[in-house]
Fold this sequence. Notes:
5 strands; alpha/beta
Amino acid sequence: PILQTKEIKQGVSELFESNPELANAVYEAAGFKNKLDNKGKIVYTTQGTGKSTLVKNEPDKYTDGDDLVYEYLNSKGLADNNTTSQNAGNKLKQYLDTLTEEKKNKVISEIIAIFNKEKLKGKIVFTSNRFARENSNILDEIYLSEDAERMEQEFIKRGGNPANAKRVVEQKLKEQKEAFEGKQTKTIKKGE
């Protein structure tokens, strides 16, 4: 028999993009194999572990979640000349702090939907920003580096003040540890 297609009701597509688990349940109930089998995931990794290079070299497989946050801010007219992918999470946090709880939740849902849309395309979304740490429930995997020296070098390479590198990296490592306490994480050892 030929399957008839019907117009998708308004909001359904967005709901599926924002909730992949629901999408899977619906596909399974309809008798289809899990639509997201062997598909993408959202992965947190410490800054300076090479995610940007990986994304640049294989854009069909990987997406930089930090770029997604930057693009969201830019599309809403919230990015200024000093906003970069590397600091977009902090800029987003500043913006969210000015909003009512209802508007804040709407923005968070919009960004989660953007991440999930990439995931549904089968891509691995790598992110290392504050948004991901503060919304860790969206993460499929968490990789944390113990290589403070490499992180300090990366901080300086990105234009950070060398005199502040050690303090900034220690603070980031502390924030990560607190953000992911009680969650299953994988460690990136020095030199990996």
